[in-house]
Amino acid sequence: MSPLQIAKECLANQSKHVRLNAFISRASQASILARASAAQDVAPGHWPPHGQLIAIKDNICTTDFPTTAASGTLKNFTSPYDATVVKLLRDAGAIIAGKTNMDEFGMGSHSIHSHFGAVRHEEEEGTVLSAGGSSGGSAVAVSSGQCTAALGTDTGGSVRLPAAYTSIVGFKPSYGLLSRWGVIAYANSLDTVGIIAEDVETTKHLFMTLNKYDSQDPTSLPPSTRARLGATSGFNSDPRHSQRPLRIGIPLEYNISDLHPDVKATWKRALDLLELEGHTLHPVSLPNTRHALSAYYILAPAEASSNLAKYDGVRYGTRADGPDGTPTSVLFAQTRGANLGLEVQRRILLGAFSLSAQAIDNYFIQAQKIRRLVQQDFDRVFATPNPLLSTPDTHAEDEGVDVIISPTAPTPSPLLSTVSSQPPTSAYKNDVFTVPASLAGLPAINIPIMVPQGDKQRPASPSYHSKYSWRTLGVQIIGQYGTDDLVLEVAEALKEYDEAGFNDGEKVREVEEDA
């Protein structure tokens, strides 16, 4: 399809799916069509992102749209500059479709904590499901065809979880590869710009476009370190043409008691497909995984408490109407209470407590120690040494694993009405499989995998294939730091195995009987 045809189709889907509330602000139809028409004149070979509609999560700065972070305190803010990742997209010829809805300041797992209302993910049957969070708007915009791809941010799984819930691809690169300059911070040591797309190929092209050193971002990986990444893999990164079979790690601690049967079946099918293609499966132990979620929900709120202190209505943010402060409160109490959502207030308070003099040793310092142990667990099981360590551990090639395969979320997407009525902290456990890779800064990707269902009479829907009653759920691929290309290649290969196995009757029966 030409850029103009794609633009027209995306605009039609935007009009059709307004009720999903995926966008906070959008480009006008006239401007999108004009840019798409101009992109037609460029010689082929520039796709993507040239001429493609790319949506941007609303905590990434843009000059031509407001940047609100889905918060009342920034509802009137328009950035005077583009974030580096947005500038790179524009330079590559992408058309910015608009800014997507999200959990306020990236704090949430279902995209319901937004000043502009919850994001909705709907099946054809009319069921309204959670879109996941915090990049739920970006995920729904892609899954409903309102744009070609989208940028999100991933702090503890905020790209991978909504991608799993909406049956698309969500990629979190290694920390420091994609610039954070112009991204409104939630937790600086964890925030990573991520890519959401319908397929792995588009994700790869966007990653190549955005994977640049940025001197304006102090956390951007310098060129000298980038030159070492991927050089120690020891084999062709494409498993379809590899010099040896890939060693696939199966993390034992991820087989939790709360794991939904359909999720477990999807995980098993992904492993079976890889084994059928000649790759080998190896159980691995990541013992500190059980502490990762607790550590994350101490570290991230602590950093958020510091980052959001500036939104007081004096230096930054919208000021509340009327006099601010009372004889018994600080000057900006009313402004922060009126313009920051309840989930944001909750995490600021939690972070302020964990950084207080009486709690910092027992909470924040202990969480930092757990974070280091989680990283060491991953370094121990991967065959490729961590290139960031001055004296990396070395593994014999046949001892460590190349990638780890796990579920992305413990359950399928729940009903929106259910998560809206639950206690706020009940959503935190949805990040149990995504947080460990975030704490270690590792590349991780969600891809949708099909799994057969017992009920053959269930009607078809976006997450069910029309020929069979096969459900599509998310599987996560995690690699060692800097092996982003390998993670993407494994994801692309696994999707090919998945589609081939689905279309090949003999293989379908074999996998279905196994499951």
TrEMBL record:
<dbReference type="InterPro" id="IPR020556">
    <property type="entry name" value="Amidase_CS"/>
</dbReference>
<dbReference type="InterPro" id="IPR000120">
    <property type="entry name" value="Amidase"/>
</dbReference>
<dbReference type="InterPro" id="IPR023631">
    <property type="entry name" value="Amidase_dom"/>
</dbReference>
<dbReference type="GO" id="GO:0005524">
    <property type="term" value="F:ATP binding"/>
</dbReference>
<dbReference type="GO" id="GO:0005739">
    <property type="term" value="C:mitochondrion"/>
</dbReference>
<keyword id="KW-0808">Transferase</keyword>
<comment type="similarity">
    <text>Belongs to the amidase family. GatA subfamily.</text>
</comment>
<comment type="function">
    <text>Allows the formation of correctly charged Gln-tRNA(Gln) through the transamidation of misacylated Glu-tRNA(Gln) in the mitochondria. The reaction takes place in the presence of glutamine and ATP through an activated gamma-phospho-Glu-tRNA(Gln).</text>
</comment>
<keyword id="KW-0496">Mitochondrion</keyword>
<dbReference type="GO" id="GO:0050567">
    <property type="term" value="F:glutaminyl-tRNA synthase (glutamine-hydrolyzing) activity"/>
</dbReference>
<protein>
    <recommendedName>
        <fullName>Glutamyl-tRNA(Gln) amidotransferase subunit A, mitochondrial</fullName>
        <ecNumber>6.3.5.7</ecNumber>
    </recommendedName>
</protein>
<dbReference type="GO" id="GO:0016740">
    <property type="term" value="F:transferase activity"/>
</dbReference>
<feature type="active site" description="Charge relay system">
    <location>
        <position position="57"/>
    </location>
</feature>
<dbReference type="Pfam" id="PF01425">
    <property type="entry name" value="Amidase"/>
</dbReference>
<keyword id="KW-0547">Nucleotide-binding</keyword>
<feature type="active site" description="Charge relay system">
    <location>
        <position position="134"/>
    </location>
</feature>
<comment type="subunit">
    <text>Subunit of the heterotrimeric GatCAB amidotransferase (AdT) complex, composed of A, B and C subunits.</text>
</comment>
<feature type="domain" description="Amidase">
    <location>
        <begin position="15"/>
        <end position="488"/>
    </location>
</feature>
<feature type="active site" description="Acyl-ester intermediate">
    <location>
        <position position="158"/>
    </location>
</feature>
<dbReference type="GO" id="GO:0032543">
    <property type="term" value="P:mitochondrial translation"/>
</dbReference>
<dbReference type="GO" id="GO:0070681">
    <property type="term" value="P:glutaminyl-tRNAGln biosynthesis via transamidation"/>
</dbReference>
<dbReference type="InterPro" id="IPR036928">
    <property type="entry name" value="AS_sf"/>
</dbReference>
<dbReference type="GO" id="GO:0030956">
    <property type="term" value="C:glutamyl-tRNA(Gln) amidotransferase complex"/>
</dbReference>
<keyword id="KW-0067">ATP-binding</keyword>
<keyword id="KW-0436">Ligase</keyword>
<keyword id="KW-0648">Protein biosynthesis</keyword>
<dbReference type="InterPro" id="IPR004412">
    <property type="entry name" value="GatA"/>
</dbReference>
